[in-house]
Amino acid sequence: MTPTPRSPSPFRTPWVRLALVLVFLASLPFPWSEETYVGCSGQPTKVVVNRGSDLFAHDLSLIAAVAFVLLTPLGVALLVRRARPGLRVLGDAAATVSFALAFCLALFVATFTFGRSRLLAAAMVGLAALAVGALHGLAETTYGVSKLLRARRSPRDLAPKHSPGSPERDG
């Protein structure tokens, strides 16, 4: 089934982005990483378990950056709902970049430690939600670009070379 120019995107729904952000935020109170510090003799000296909220609450600028990166796709989804197709594609691309940036930032914060670090289940769930958000945004962007390209083709390009009622000319 080929979508018509007015058909909605099979991917377009602002609630998917909201649900993914909420899954990420719901994973923050749980343990995210386990750091093992090793002494000079090579034996583990201390094991520290960090919650996701502890990892992101170290610095106010980090909290502001994460909030901005997570709220951008939600705001874009609401702003471009009824916009022209070109602006929607631009908004979807911004949401894709925002989710990818949030994924990289969360992965960096969870694994950048001085000891050996191991990610726990809550971190995997939170990171998976951000990765799915990035892939969802990529699918929306790809669909929007292909729809724009289809709409820009002129009817002359889509018409058959020889119409059935006219005689064919040989070169």
Counted up, domains total 1
Assembly type of the chains comes to single chain
Low-confidence stretches: none
Spatial sequence of strands, sheet with the most strands:
2-1-3
Kindly describe this structure.
The chain is mainly α and 171 residues long. It has a single domain (14-152), classed as Butyryl-CoA Dehydrogenase, subunit A, domain 3 (Up-down Bundle), CATH 1.20.140. The protein has six helices and three strands, in the order H-E-E-H-H-H-E-H-H. The chain has helices spanning 14-27, 52-56, 60-79, 85-111, 121-152, 155-158; strands at residues 31-38, 44-51, 116-119. The chain has a three-stranded antiparallel β-sheet with strand order 2-1-3. Helix 1 packs antiparallel against helix 3 (60-79). The longest helix is centred in the last third of the chain and has 32 residues, at 121-152. The radius of gyration is 24 Å and the shape is elongated. 22% of the residues are buried. The model has no long low-confidence stretch (mean pLDDT 79).
